[in-house]
Amino acid sequence: MAKVVVGLSGGVDSSVAAYLLKEAGHEVIGVFMKNWHDTSVTISDECPWIDDSNDAMLVAESLGIPFQTIDLSDEYRKRIVDYMFAEYEAGRTPNPDVLCNREIKFDVFLKAAIQIGADYVATGHYCRKGTIESLNGPIYQLLAGIDGNKDQSYFLCQVTQEQLSKALFPIGELTKPEVRVIANKIGLTTANKKDSQGLCFIGKVKLPDFLQQQLKPKKGDIIEIANDFNSYNNLREKLDTHQVSELETITKPIIYSPENGKKVGEHDGAHFFTIGQRRGLNVGGKAEGMFVIATDVKDNIVYVGMGDNHPGLLRNGLYIPSKDVHWVREDLKIEIGAQADFMVRIRYRQTLIKATLHHQSEGWYILFEKPVKAIAAGQFAAWYLDDELVGSGVIG
Fold this sequence. Notes:
Elements: E1 3-7, H1 12-23, E2 27-34, H2 48-63, E3 67-71, H3 73-89, H4 96-115, E4 120-122, E5 127-134, E6 137-144, H5 161-165, E7 167-168, H6 176-185, H7 207-212, E8 220-224, H8 231-238, H9 246-251, E9 262-267, E10 290-296, E11 301-306, E12 314-321, E13 325-327, E14 339-345, E15 353-360, E16 363-373, E17 380-385, E18 388-394
Helix pairs in contact: 1-2, 1-6, 3-4
């Protein structure tokens, strides 16, 4: 049997993961990752990570496994928080959970576990790992979890073959209700604990409040774009079609200017908003809700449209620069000039949409079978073959 270090978050999922591994006969060590204690940037008025750490310790005691806390806060600040601030300041929308898995759980944490002799690290993710034997050795698959409502493979879309080789996902074959049944049956203190909605391994946090502690407020205009604005023709006018490919024309986000609409309000900083956002606009007197359809952090303008089906929210494709593409399955990578069909999602729990990936020398273009809503630069697009996640990239 193997020596496995389990990342105990203080939640029910990682608790049951540790239990299942011990029941299978493995030598299990529970470790809580302390990712934040910087008082210069307040996460919450409370200290949720302390509560989570205590819950993790109680679970370890209940299971009779060793427990320790590891402080990864310096690396977390450098690799996750600083990156988040920089991305938002640049008008992009990062995904800290994807980054946390790539940079912390399956890099810093994994290396620390290996140093203490671990064969594997395990987490409470709802996903599965498969293995294909090849002439060059095993190829590891990142598979969707059995529970379609909780599948978390998207959050691991940036992991490598080496990282997967050392990873275990004990609850991937279970549904969330089944996990809770097990936790209650063995009397775990986390059995009925609510799922965390905060940043990875940090706890509760209101992101706008968090961002405002580092990114300074700056008054700017909110410009409404009419629903009948001919955005496609507007885009074509702003592109030199003799030099820009059809793929780039289709996938490039719409370019707006204040002259295209009318001022309907003011905001405290374009970098606080993301595509598809509704809250925080404070624009009233409209027949339907207002949604962010574009931001311009350079001129500090937020463009909005009325209704969640505003044409400005919809795009037929997206672009990912070559440097930002990652293949979990390098053996399935498409050659330059080729194309292939995949199922794609751009956010957690989004329904998979059929799309075609085109590999060009400068990057990758994804064309969707039907328009997709609220695509934002900085998000991760992930593509699947059946239930296997094979690649991903940061939307440009």
